[in-house]
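Regression test case RT-17, inverse folding.

Input:
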């Protein structure tokens, strides 16, 4: 089985928990008989030349250009079938594509993966509650107490300026 792990960061450049978990999964899958894993993580755009949006850093590891300093949920790379990510998917031909986050990668990349690899299993691991919580997805109130639900009223109490 061929598995592509996509992460919003590469642990060489970003040591967050989600990046480390995704990379550990990549290493562990590669250790399984009959499995081949690949890892693609986002990195700051200044690490790339002006042409490529995906760069190999080893035979099974890739960097995807990103605007890492900007917190966004939409993709910053080409989403068409001629783009670098689509070319990587066609080259690797994964049986499974495992997204760790959609943050920085962009939710649209899931659709690209489905379009380019229609038979691949698509897995999404969410490491925070970014779609629910404006406090960096942490579900922690401004007084540092845990938040147990997301609702317009509860969110407004912590972040009255966010609409």
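Golden output:
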């Amino acid at each position: 089985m061929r598995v592509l792990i996509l992460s919003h960061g590469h642990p060489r450049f970003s040591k967050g928990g989600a990046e480390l978990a995704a990379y550990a999964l990549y290493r562990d899958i590669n250790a399984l008989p009959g499995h081949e894993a690949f890892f693609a993580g986002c990195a700051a755009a200044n690490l790339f030349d002006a042409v490529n949006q995906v760069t190999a850093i080893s035979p099974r590891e890739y960097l995807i250009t990103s605007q890492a300093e900007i917190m966004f949920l939409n993709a910053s790379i080409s989403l068409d079938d001629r783009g670098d990510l689509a070319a990587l998917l066609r080259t690797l031909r994964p049986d499974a594509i495992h997204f760790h986050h959609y943050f920085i990668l962009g939710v649209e990349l899931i659709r690209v993966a489905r379009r380019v690899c229609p038979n691949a299993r698509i897995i999404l691991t969410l490491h925070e509650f970014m779609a629910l919580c404006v406090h960096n997805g942490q579900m922690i109130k401004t007084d540092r107490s845990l938040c147990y639900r997301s609702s317009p009223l509860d969110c407004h109490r912590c972040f009255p300026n966010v609409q």
